[in-house]
Write a structure and sequence with these properties.
Blueprint (H helix, E strand, L loop, with lengths): L13 H10 L1 H7 L2 E8 L5 H10 L3 H4 L27 H7 L3 E6 L28 H10 L33 H18 L7 E6 L37 H8 L8 H13 L7 H26 L2 H6 L2 E4 L8 H4 L9 H4 L3 E4 L7 E9 L3 H8 L4 H8 L15 H4 L12 E5 L25 E9 L8 E9 L21 E6 L11 E6 L6 E6 L16 H21 L15
Parallel strand pairs: 1-6, 2-3
Antiparallel strand pairs: 1-5, 4-5, 7-8, 8-9, 9-12, 10-11
Organism: Conexibacter arvalis
GO cellular component, one term: cytoplasm
EC number: 3.1.6.6
């Protein structure tokens, strides 16, 4: 698994496509003897919610991990919730219950699993000041076995985030990065498993990398700091200068967002205050592709070690995907992955690789989702989900049927595309602009992104094309919800139960002494819903928001899309059975 690694957008140039085929070597290796799904979508964003959803096969309203720490929220803040090991079972829990040895290497971000100095929130590093692996610290993490409660062994922390460049994927000056460490840890594990081949239970290994997430460190301030190596990674780069089709990229990067949900313009304006100014320059864009090359180099080391044992390689199914993508300046200059459901964020790679199953390269255009991965892996392993749920119900409080589809018969060529051609559902409540640390780098409090900024989306295929041809549509609802108000009330999150949201912002530099003016706002009703709709077949850049269309045929389609969204919400957006969440709306 990579982080922030998007599917190629429609506006990439021929030069960039050539760069991908020549220099993204791990992807190319996986495509050889692999099946690539061209229309694969994440369940939610951003990092922590997406990873928790991926590994549990359930959406945030059930597992509770809806927010990402690191901007306005800290890992231990009252509005940050992590996955409890005894509630919703994970991929590791399912496979361990099925008799597998299960291992996890790399970025986790599902719980706060770091070892810390007692009395502090300071994480124990497992690397030295030159970014090299520290064997003693690694052994400490291995003995602690911090992910055992989540069904995995072998995790070595700390989590790769924060303001220390040594804890980045590859961006510390004069030092190694976490991705090189993760590759080395996984190679060591595979080598040990190879030596024990035939004398052990079947195994499952997660190898989870950071990059191209280091793009989040890029900005006007970070570039000046001596310990960060950002622009230096572009020296002698293979990344082309003509990354994008000039006209197509200009259409999206300079887009006027006035026909879109209002939170999008607010997000563009708020982002520099949340983090730092990050001009949308060619250098910035090239850095993202350099990071993709960097992580491919590390993933290739893992694939080479697997290939070193041909029998083990033949017996191993490898999947490659990412937790989400990155906007990289598209849609009016957006960065990262929040407050929208555009292709750059939600559409990610998904490749299934095995030299025994696939001869050459195969591709599939069916719509798929991260929700499908866990049931599909169980199917490929011949494990019965229902029986495993029965075992897990003895140890976990929230064991629900998985909401995704088992695609194993389709992958194995035993079922056609029509059997798996269903809509996919995406949702996000993640708001990094709101929290207990809502202070900019200039030490001034800022207003969070305006509501409605929560999103739920479907992607589906309808016969709206010429002659009834299938076309892919995307339909999104933007909503406000009491669940994330300061006082969410006691009911169903629709503003009818006494809930209120009280926000107080100090004026001026918060670190200066003396009295300060403050502005307090009180909200008692959710903001009005807003909508988006795109025909991706005719508008792959998602520029024309069709909710404003007066075309009768489009209006009929919008009604149908609205019904499908409600159906998908009811089927997939489960809530806890052990109690109610204040302010949480029922599907």
């Amino acid at each position: 698994m990579a982080d922030e690694y998007r599917f190629p957008p429609a506006y990439e140039s021929a030069a960039t496509r050539a760069f991908r085929s020549r220099h993204l070597t791990a992807e190319e290796t996986l495509r050889d003897s692999g099946l690539e799904f061209n229309s694969h979508y994440i369940m939610t964003a951003a990092c922590a919610p997406s990873r928790t959803s991926f590994f549990t096969g359930q959406y945030p309203p059930l597992h509770g991990v809806s927010q990402t720490d690191g901007i306005a929220k800290g890992a231990a803040d009252s509005d940050m919730h992590w996955l409890d090991p005894d509630t919703v079972p994970t991929l590791g829990d399912y496979f361990r219950a099925g008799g597998y040895e299960t291992y996890y290497k790399g970025k986790w971000h599902v719980s706060h699993a770091d070892l810390t100095t007692p009395g502090t929130h300071q994480s124990l590093p497992s690397y030295d000041q030159r970014g090299r692996r520290d064997p003693r610290a690694e052994r400490t993490y291995l003995r602690a076995n911090r992910l055992d409660g989540y069904g995995f062994d072998g995790w070595i922390g700390p989590e790769p985030h924060g303001d220390d460049p040594l804890n980045s994927g590859s961006s510390a000056r004069g030092a190694g990065g976490r991705d090189a460490q993760y590759a080395g840890q996984t190679v060591d594990l595979l080598r040990a498993l190879s030596k024990r081949r035939g004398q052990q239970a079947p195994w499952l290994v997660v190898s989870s990398f950071v990059n191209p997430h280091d793009i989040a460190a890029w900005g006007s301030f970070t570039k000046r700091l001596p310990d960060w190596n950002l622009t230096g990674q572009l020296e002698g780069t293979d990344v082309p200068s003509d990354l994008f089709d000039e006209a197509m990229y200009a259409a999206t990067s300079r887009e006027d967002l006035r026909g879109k949900p209002t939170c999008q313009r607010s997000y563009v304006a708020t982002y520099p205050k949340m983090l730092q100014p990050s001009p949308n320059t060619l250098e910035y864009q090239r850095f993202y592709y350099q990071l993709m090359q960097n992580v491919n180099r590390e993933i290739q080391k893992v694939l080479d070690q697997l290939a070193a044992d041909p029998q083990m390689a033949a017996d191993t199914i490898v999947i490659f995907t990412s937790d989400h993508g990155d906007m990289l300046g598209a849609h009016g200059g957006m960065h990262q992955k929040w407050h929208q459901a555009y292709e750059e964020t939600t559409h990610v790679p998904f490749i299934v690789h095995n030299p025994r199953l696939f001869s050459g390269r195969q591709r599939a255009d069916v719509l798929t989702s991260h929700a499908d991965v866990l049931p599909t892996l169980l199917g490929l392993a011949g494990l019965n989900e229902g029986k495993l749920r029965g075992k897990l119900e003895r140890t976990h409080t929230e064991v629900h049927p998985l909401v995704g589809r088992d695609l194993s018969k389709f992958i194995l060529g035993k079922a056609g595309a029509a059997t798996v051609d269903d809509p996919v559902y995406f949702m996000t409540d993640d708001d990094p602009s709101q929290g207990e640390h809502q202070v900019s780098i200039s030490r001034r409090m800022y207003e969070s992104v305006v509501q409605p900024n929560h999103v739920e989306t479907i992607v589906t295929q309808l016969r709206t094309g010429p002659g009834g041809a299938l076309e892919t549509w995307k339909y999104s609802r933007y909503y406000d919800t009491e669940q994330y108000w300061s006082d969410p009330g006691s009911g169903g999150g629709r503003g009818r139960d006494g809930g209120k949201d009280v926000v107080t912002l100090l004026r001026g530099n918060v670190e200066r002494r003396g009295g300060k003016a403050a502005v307090t706002t009180v909200k008692r009703r959710p903001a009005r819903e807003q909508f988006e709709a795109y025909n991706l077949a005719r508008d792959p850049l998602e520029l024309d928001n069709l909710v404003h269309s007066r075309d009768p045929a489009v209006r009929v389609t919008l009604t149908r899309l609205g019904r499908t969204l409600k159906q998908q919400r009811a089927a997939k957006r489960k809530t806890p059975s052990t109690g109610s969440v204040p302010g949480q709306a029922k599907p």
